[in-house]
Design a protein that fits this description.
Length: 242
């Protein structure tokens, strides 16, 4: 199977201190790779280091065979990496329409058009004139996803997209993730809840103290969720049916 994103031996952190200690991770084309881990394990740091928002100390971040480690964020984005950041980062004073136009402005021959993302996320179409600060959490999340799609990614990094959402909205986000993978997008999904990761991911990796300590097909985790649960060492809801 083709590899969309390959991270290898990645070291990164802040002010010379290390948070990531030689992380290796692969996202296969058209697959959902989930990343779970305790608070502070380094998940957001990894997402930022991949996206070029944080310059890694060393290691490989390969997209479609090209090593982009250390390149600035706009170059990584142009190479096909989209990011839905933790906390959504929607501009409070810009309308939905303005967000979408801004995201779409640099792309040529797009896979995703504004019309296309509005068909996927019709709720946004009803909110085009609403400002960021007038949107619900779920609508902001949809906008963050729409904005990322308009950068024409081949790999989409989603950092806890369900955080703070009601259960039904979180379920809708998971449905969206599954649909995007089926449409051929490759996704790295940082997810708080193991049961939700099991529902949507093809593989699940665990990051702990900046190291990948587990990485296996979801079927294996579904058959024995307690192994991963113990790595997270907090009470996680069991997936339904297990
Ligand atoms: N800008 C920063 N400057 C210095 N240290 C940081 C910065 N951002 C994160 N850290 C530290 O890096 C470590 C990893 O944080 P990170 O946000 O990557 O973890 P996380 O796994 O995403 O956690 P969470 O699940 O809480 O979002 C933590 O110790 C955190 O305090």
């Amino acid at each position: 199977m083709a590899v969309a994103l390959r991270v290898d031996g990645l070291y990164a952190g802040y002010h010379g201190g290390r948070v990531l200690h030689g992380v290796g991770l692969t996202v296969e084309a058209g697959q959902v790779q989930a990343l779970v881990g305790r608070n502070g394990a380094g998940k957001t740091t990894l997402v930022h280091a991949i996206a070029g928002l944080l310059r890694p100390y060393s290691g490989v971040v390969e997209i479609g065979g090209t090593d982009l480690a250390g390149r600035p964020a706009h170059q990584v984005a142009r190479a096909g990496v989209g990011i839905v950041p933790q906390g959504r980062r929607v501009f409070p004073s810009l309308t939905v329409a303005e967000h979408l136009k801004l995201a779409a402005r640099h792309q040529e021959g797009p896979m995703w058009t504004i019309k296309g993302v509005l068909e996927l996320l019709p709720r946004l179409g009803e909110r085009l004139d609403h400002r960021g600060d007038q949107l619900s959490g779920g609508e902001q999340q949809m906008l963050a996803i729409a904005r990322a799609l308009l950068t024409q990614p081949r790999v989409l990094l989603l950092d806890e997209p369900s955080e703070g959402l009601a259960l039904d909205l979180a379920a809708r986000v998971r449905g969206l993730v599954t649909g995007l993978a089926q449409a051929g997008l490759s996704l790295l999904l940082v997810e708080q809840r193991l049961d939700h990761a099991i529902e949507v991911a093809d593989r699940i990796a665990v990051l702990d103290y900046g190291r990948v300590i587990f990485d296996a097909p979801t079927a294996q985790v579904r058959a024995d969720p307690t192994t991963v649960q113990s790595m997270l060492s907090i009470d996680q809801p069991l997936p339904q049916g297990s």
